[in-house]
Amino acid sequence: MRMLDTTMTPEALVLKQGQGWARGEVRIKPLLNGSEQEFIASRRNIVFQTLKKLQIQCSQDEVPNIALLGSGGGQRAMVGLLGSLVELDKAGLLDCILYLSGVSGSTWCMASLYQEPDWSTKLDTVKNKIIERLSGPGVSLTDKLEKLKKYYYGKTFFSLTDVWAVLFVTPYVKEIDEQTITEQRKHHKKDPFPIYTVIDKQCKQSKTGDPWFEINPYEAGYSLTGAFVDTCHFGSQFHEGSKKNDEALCGSALADEKDIMKSIWERIKGIFQERETVFEAMREGRPAGGHEEMNVVEENFEPAGIASHHDPTSLPVDKSYQVLMDLVDMNICALNGKDTSGLDQSIRANLNDKLNQWRDDYRTFQASYSAEMITNLMEVAGKNITNNKNKLLEEIRMVVGKKGTRRFMINPNDK
After folding, report:
1. Which of 161, 271, 272, 331 has the most CB atoms at less than 10 Å from its CB?
2. Looking at the UniProt record for this protein, which Gene Ontology cellular component terms does it annotate, in alphabetical order (predicted)?
3. What number is the average pLDDT over the span 51-74?
4. What's the number of domains the chain is made of?
C-alpha cells in the first residue's frame, strides 16, 4: 500500500526561480504542468460531451472545472467515496468530473480505483472487486513481515511510513499495493485527473506557509506556493532548486499524534499476541497460516467495546441519508449567509440518541468493516447522491451560466 499521509517541511526545499523545468529540478510557476494540461484538455472534451447528454448547453470554452473532493476518515471515507462514485455513475454524472481528489482514507479508495486502467468505464466491475477484497481475508503476518524486510533492505531510506503502511493500513485495505503513482500517467485517459492531498503538519500547527501538499501522477508540491517537483523524485532532498540526493524527507503522521501512537501500539501488541498463537499452533501440529491465522489477528486487533458486525439497533438507512441531505443544505445555506438553525434542529432530531451508536459503528479506528457494514455505508453514501441529483445539476447549470456570462464581459484586448 503506498502511503499518502505525509508530512514534508517547506524549509527542506531551498528553491530558486527559473524559467524552465526538468527532471530533478523544482518548478516554480503559477501554471499547470504541461502533461497535466494535455490530460485536462482531453478530459474536458469528455465532460463537454456528458453535459450535452444532460442537456446542459455550453461551448467547450465554458466547460466548468468540476472536482470531487473526498474527506479523510479511514475505511469509512474509503467506502463512502466508493459509494458516491458508483451512484454518480448511475446518475450519468461521473463524467462531469474533471478532477478527483482526496485525503487520507479517500486516497485508499482512489489508489484501489486507479489500479485499473480507465476504471470509470467499468466501475461496477471494479467496485465488486474492491468490495470482495475488503470483505475477504487480510494479508498474513508472514507476508507483512516479508514486505517490511524487503523495504528495509531494498530502500535507500526506511522510515515510519513503511511501518505505518504495512502494519496499520494493510488490515483495512486487505492488500499491499506496490504500484507507484507515476504508473498512472498512461492508463487513465478516460478517468478524472487524480490528486492525492496531504497536510503539512508543521505548517498546519504553526498556521504559517502552505499546509496543503498535493501529489498527482506528474508532480508533487505545494498548491498555493506553486512549487512542484516530478513525482518520481518526491521524498528527495533539494538544494537551490535542484535535487541533491534521494534521502527521504517525509514521513507519515496523523493530525493527532496520540491517535497514531495508540494505533501503532495496538498493532504491535496484536503482532506479539499473534506470534504466540502461531508458535503454539506449530507446537501442536496445527496449521499456522491461512484463514485461521487471520481470524486470530482480527480478534487481537479489535478494540474493546467495538463490535465487528453491524448493530441492528443503529440508525436506519433512510434517516441516515436524510441527515446527509440536511448537511448538504446546511453547507449551502452557510455559504450563502442564510440561517442554518432549522436544518441543525432537523439533523439533531433525526440522529436523536442514535448519534453515538452511529459513531461507534463507523469509527475511524476499529476492526475492518464486515460485508454488511460496507453495503449499508455504500447505500447511505449513494442515496446522498441520488436524492441530490437535481441540486447537483442545478449547480452545474449555474456555474456554466456564470462562466458564459464572464466570457462575454471580458475585453478581448485583455486576454
Report:
1. 161
2. cytosol; nuclear envelope; nucleoplasm
3. 91
4. 2
Range of the domain at 382: 310-362+370-400
Q: How far is CA 241 from CA 24, 215, 327, 356, in A?
A: 8, 18, 44, 50
Q: Are 28 and 226 in contact (CB under 8 A)?
A: yes
Question: How far, CA to CA in Å, does 311 sit from each of 77, 352, 357, 362?
Answer: 19, 17, 9, 11
* Cα 356 to Cα 362: distance, rounded to the nearest angstrom: 10
In 216-296, the DSSP E strands lie at: 219-222, 227-230, 237-239, 242-245, 251-252
Whose CA is closest to 387, among 338, 318, 315, 314?
318
Q: Answer whether residue 265 is part of any domain.
A: no
232 is written with which cell numbers?
518520481
Return the closest-CA partner of residue 391 out of 333, 316, 318.
Answer: 333
pTM of the predicted protein model: 0.71
Three cell numbers, residue 152:
528495509
Domain membership flag for residue 196 = yes
The pLDDT, as a whole number, for residue 204 is 78
**Residue 131 confidence (pLDDT) above 90:** yes
pLDDT category at 256 given cuts 50, 70, 90 is: low
